[in-house]
Specification:
heterodimer; A: alpha/beta; pyruvate-formate lyase- activating enzyme; eight-stranded mixed β-sheet; five-stranded mixed β-sheet; B: mainly alpha; two-stranded antiparallel ribbon; 10 helices; elongated
């Protein structure tokens, strides 16, 4: 899969950076390359466009990151049981266009595909964090504000990232993707410290709601290949959408997953129901007016988000959790952005603390 | 579409319908837009009711891949517009029918839970309150007592129904999905 870009804008002071040079060299011929004074301005929405968010996805901005690279996962909250993942922001936005994507709200004010030329500073930041907490295991992911692999053929950060993490104890890297762009990874040795995870949806959700992503079977085939190349693999069933027939489709999807990857080789599975703030829902409906998956039986929940009503959502989690257990192998599983009471109902036990869950999910 | 559009704009202006809903209404297509216009006038739908009806119809049509005209022609919807009784009662029944079409499983689940709660035959002074729109798995139990013995009596009544109340919690927690 290759993604299209209309233009590539490079911050003038960064034109000599390794990343800018790589991008210029590998840029698709159809993409205009030009230089701008300030990438932040170039990242703002194009208000002349009928869909500024979609236009932003087709505009790559190579720029210096002015903020820290590490941040707490945006899904985290004291209201929920959390997994303790740290997010490494090396890029922002994504060339795919899932109808439910939270980025439609989260980066609405700077929708360009930003990629940060000073990304090696992130390694210093991680080194400092490690030095402050010797012995602690850190799970760090790059796939929250951008797909970890979508543009790796152009920006080529994957190699340096894998090599950096492979060399350090107590650090785990999670590369999260909906693509099958894994070629750059296959020649590297992750030394058992790198996990590649796929967001997995039933075929019905893929067809209606995940434009430009790889089909679920292609994601599973890619997962098998990286597993064979020495990486760990994990899956995110997120968002789980409670449409008519969802329980059957999710059960089938889990069977497909186990056919591709034996349960004992899956590092973890996370689950999260479709959840949208009213602003996100409005943006998603405006941009994807014909997507029936956005029109399930969602109601306003106590956290201000719109979610499937509780018995439906929890019932579907339970169906999925039972199917994961059905092979008789314990695959570590957890819920994202759900209260402790929901964990209790789904798994029959209160959720582990953030530190405990982080330890359980970590690669040792 | 022109005369219909004009009529819709005029009605929308009278009812102060927000721009977002007016756009959806105008985009419905001639026959669908006319059907809704006719019902809105006949039932004298108020601003909130009409805006909600437009949103519900739009969402049902996308989800079911049907036209709004055909949704309005469904028996359970059409019947509400010709019910005996007052116009406001018909308007409320019309909205309720659309809500039921939009959230069928939620409505069924709420009815199921209400029947479980009715079957508890709780004494006066105890009420079991379900979460709004079944949005969470919590239930509120309200006891209204005037003195300590009254309170003891209510607590005993609740204790005697512990198993049946556990079933209500179970249904809220997805036991029957």
């Amino acid at each position: 899969m290759k993604f299209e870009l209309d233009e590539i804008l490079i911050e003038e002071p960064e034109r000599g950076s390794a990343l800018a040079r790589r991008v210029i060299e590998r840029a698709p011929r159809s993409s205009r390359v030009s230089f701008v004074e300030d990438g932040r301005v170039a990242s703002m929405p194009d208000l002349q466009s009928s869909d500024p968010f979609a236009a932003g996805k087709r505009r790559m901005v190579v720029m210096r990151r002015r903020s820290p690279f590490l941040m707490a996962c945006p899904a985290g909250s004291a209201q929920f049981a959390c997994c303790g993942l740290q997010v490494l922001v090396l890029a922002s936005n994504c060339p795919m266009d899932c109808s439910y994507c939270f980025l439609q709200e989260y980066v609405a004010d700077n929708p360009a595909f930003q990629v940060y030329s000073n990304y090696t500073d992130a390694f210093d930041e991680i080194d400092r964090m490690r030095a402050n907490a010797p012995g602690r295991v850190f799970r760090i992911g790059t796939g929250e504000l951008a797909d970890s692999l979508a543009f790796d053929s152009i920006i080529g950060m994957g190699r340096e990232l894998v090599e950096y993490f492979a060399d350090r104890e107590n650090l785990n890297l999670e590369l999260k993707t909906k693509t099958d762009e894994i070629e750059n990874l296959l020649a590297l040795d992750p030394r058992d410290r790198v996990l590649v995870s796929w967001t997995l949806s039933p075929e019905a959700v893929y067809r209606t709601s995940e434009p430009r992503t790889a089909p679920p079977r292609a994601r599973l085939a890619a997962a098998r290949r990286v597993l064979d190349a020495g990486y760990r693999v994990a899956f995110h069933f997120d968002p789980i959408i409670a449409y008519d027939g969802a329980d059957r489709d999710y059960r089938e999807m889990i069977e497909d997953m186990f056919d591709a990857i034996p349960p004992e080789r899956i590092t973890f599975v996370s689950m999260g129901g479709l959840r949208m703030t009213p602003t996100l829902r409005a943006a998603a409906r405006r941009r994807h007016p014909d997507d029936p998956m956005l029109l399930g039986e969602e109601v306003p929940a106590s956290d201000g988000r719109i979610r499937s009503f509780a018995p439906l959502r929890i019932g579907l989690y339970r169906t999925i959790a039972e199917r994961i257990r059905s092979r008789g192998v314990e695959v570590p599983a957890y819920l994202c952005m759900e209260a402790a009471s929901v964990h209790q109902r789904v798994f029959g036990a209160a959720p582990a603390s953030v530190a405990e869950l982080n330890e359980r999910l970590a690669i040792r | 579409m022109e005369p219909v559009a004009e009529k819709i704009r005029e009605l929308a202006a009278r009812r102060h319908i927000p721009e977002a809903q007016l756009s959806k209404w105008l985009a419905m297509g001639n026959r669908s837009a006319s059907s809704l216009c006719e019902i809105a006038e006949r039932l004298r739908l108020r601003t909130g009711q009409l805006a909600r009806a437009i949103d519900l119809l739009d969402e049902i049509a996308v989800r079911d891949r049907s036209t709004i005209e055909s949704i309005l022609a469904r028996d359970e919807v059409r019947r509400t517009t010709i019910l005996a009784g007052s116009t406001p009662a018909r308007a409320a029944a019309f909205l309720a029918a659309l809500e039921k079409l939009r959230f069928p499983r939620l409505q069924r689940m709420a009815e199921r839970l209400r029947s479980e709660i009715d079957a508890l035959r709780l004494p006066a002074g105890i009420s079991v309150i379900l979460p709004k729109s079944l949005a969470s798995d919590e239930i509120a139990i309200k006891l209204v007592a005037r003195n300590p013995s009254d309170l003891s009596r209510l607590i005993d009544a609740l204790k005697a129904r512990e198993e049946a109340i556990a079933r209500v919690f179970g249904i809220l927690g997805g036991d029957e999905v």
